[in-house]
Amino acid sequence: MTHTPFFIDGAARSGAWVITCDHATNTVPPHVNGGTLGLPEDEMERHIAIDIGALGLAHALGALLNAPVVSANFSRLVIDPNRGADDPTLIPQLYDGTIIPGNRVLPEVERQRRIDMLYDPYHDAIARTASTRDIAFLAVHSFTPQLKKRPPRPWEIGVLSARDRRIADPLIAGLQGALTSPVGDNAPYAGFFPGDAMSQHAHIPGRPNVILEIRQDLIADARGQQHWAALLATHLEAARTDANL
Q1: What does the pLDDT read at residue 1?
Q2: Percentage of residues in the chain having pLDDT higher than 70
Q3: Which of the ends of the chain has fewer CB neighbours closer than 10 A, N or C?
Q4: Are strands 94-95 and 136-143 parallel, antiparallel or unpaired?
Q5: Mode of pairing for the β-strands spanning 69-72 and 17-21
Q6: Half-sphere exposure of 42 (CA within 13 A, CB side)
Q7: Which among 55, 65, 107, 119 has a CA at the least distance from the CA of 239?
């Protein structure tokens, strides 16, 4: 059976956004080390392998915003599509204290094969989806409430951006008025890594963009995903209008 490296939900939708979900699944394709990275199942269910709840939230937002959703169908532990192809963490050997056995000794030919069969097709699908649209980019991620041996994170949501703050600034302002918890501004992660997915598809082409990071326990089930999608869709559209996009 041939592995599909990406999915596009709602390809014919014509709204003002394109939504991406880089860490949508924990799939290890059969052509990668026989379909396993040598980790037990409970590790593959953790945030190290998948952005828990992010795909369901992305699909719910896609329906509300009339936007196509492009999602990667491989675990970030196989190869991380939200890194530049020359980034040393493109194929992680260690993540949040867990050693990845299937990546410890990785010949260059295998690294390139993962790029050719997974990374490049996913990014090509995003580029094709955006090529005929005058749109804003939205990337959907989730984060763990606490990394190992680190303090708990105080945010329910983070809004990430680089220099283009056209959407981020009004979105943060709107969410701060709607939530009782603090809204992370480029937290819990920075809004830019050289060569990352948003850099490739939005920063360099000059498209308006924003990245959402939602705490994973809040969107782990369909009810949470629908709740946050409804809230976020309203504020995303308000931010886009405020930015005259």
Answers
A1: 63
A2: 100
A3: N
A4: unpaired
A5: parallel
A6: 0
A7: 65
| 26-44 residues labelled b (16+ CB within 10 A) or e (exposed) | bbbbeebbeeebebeeebb
End-to-end Cα separation, the chain, in angstroms? 43
Question: Is the pLDDT assigned to residue 18 strictly greater than 70?
Answer: yes
In whole angstroms, how far apart are CA 49 and each of 11, 26, 122? 26, 5, 17
Q: What DSSP string describes 173-203?
A: HHHHHH-SSPEEES-SS-S--TT-HHIIIII
Distance between CA atoms of residues 140 and 44, nearest Å: 20
- The whole-number average pLDDT for the span 101-106 is 93
Question: Is residue 64 one of the residues assigned to a domain?
Answer: yes
Amino acid at residue number 82 = N
Q: Is residue 235 part of a domain?
A: yes
Number of domains comprising the chain: 1
The 8-class DSSP code of residue 107 comes to -
CA angle 138, 141, 144 (to 5 degrees): 155
- 134, two tokens: 């005058």
The mean of the pLDDT values for the chain is 95
Determine the 3-state secondary structure of 46 from DSSP: coil
Residue 109 tokens read as 């030919």
Q: Which of 145, 87, 143 is nearest to 111 (CA)?
A: 87
- 8 Å CB contact between 21 and 140: yes
In which residue are the tokens 């680190």 written? 150
Look up the domain containing 15 and give its range. Answer: 6-242
The identity of residue 97, as a single letter, is: G
Domain presence at residue 1: no
Tokens of 150: 């680190």
Q: Is residue 50 predicted with pLDDT exceeding 90?
A: yes
